[in-house]
Amino acid sequence: MIRGKRPDADLRRNYNKSLWISVGGSTLLNGLLIFFYPTHGPDALTQPEKPILIQLEQIPETRQERRPPPPPRPVVPIATDDPDLPDDITIESTDLDLNLDDLLPPPPLEEFEEEIELEEEEEVVDIWKVEEEPRPIGGIEKQPRPKYPEIAQKAGIEGRVFVKVLVGKDGKVEQAGGISGPEVFHEVAQAAAMQWTFLPAIQNDKPVRVWVSLPFVFKLN
Q: What pLDDT score does 109 carry?
């Protein structure tokens, strides 16, 4: 037996009706959109911005006003025990007379020159500023060597010591500064460094005083 479709399930019967309903609904919807939104640009819903107005104010020119001079100071009465003096007496301006005859004359220029020479002698120049560095006379081999301390020999202590000395304009060691290295060698190293002699450092064709670091190596045979 051939079974047929149910009338409510046959889509061909309602095809034309559904088509016209869809076309009519879409046409009505488009008409409403065109009526409420006549322009379809992206700026249709945006509100126009208010223009910004910049106003320029004319600032009045400033002038510097000079203040009037202060009024003269009032006269202060002077208390005194003399009944003959009036109450409104004031102190008059007086001329100051300085007696310069009793003053000692200025010292001669020779004393100032001696002070200037002393200041120049006390000046110490940095080693990197000199044109010629101080050199040991006869070389390092001719300079005094420190004696190896007995306590260091028995203990087998070796090391290197640096003694900072001030070489004067005459090439002699004036004083010893800082000492670095094993402390057991400090005393003998300083004593030997104070006996060194140099050719002085030269700056602008003149001997100058400089600090020099002297190395001493203590090594057991």
A: 59
- C-alpha gyration radius of the chain: 55
> Which string of b and e fits 60-77 if b means at least 16 CB within 10 Å?
eeeeeeeeeeeeeeeeee
DSSP string, 41-64: STTSSSPPPPPP------PPPP-P
Task: Determine the pLDDT at residue 203.
Answer: 92
* Element at 191 (helix H, strand E): helix 186-193
Rounded to two decimals, the pTM is 0.46
CA angle 176, 189, 180 (to 5 degrees): 70
Q: What is the pLDDT of residue 25?
A: 83
Query: Can you give the pLDDT at residue 179?
Result: 92
How far are the Cα atoms of 54, 107, 148, 173, 196 from residue 192, in angstroms, in the given order? 88, 45, 11, 11, 7
User: Domain map of the chain by residue range?
Assistant: 136-218
Residue 31, pLDDT score: 82
Per-residue b/e over 133-160, b at no fewer than 16 CB within 10 Å? ebebeeeeeebeebebbeebeeeeeeee
Q: What residues of the chain score a pLDDT lower than 70? A: 1-13, 39-64, 74-122
Domain range 136-218, CATH architecture: 2-Layer Sandwich (3.30)
CB 210 within 8 A of CB 170: no
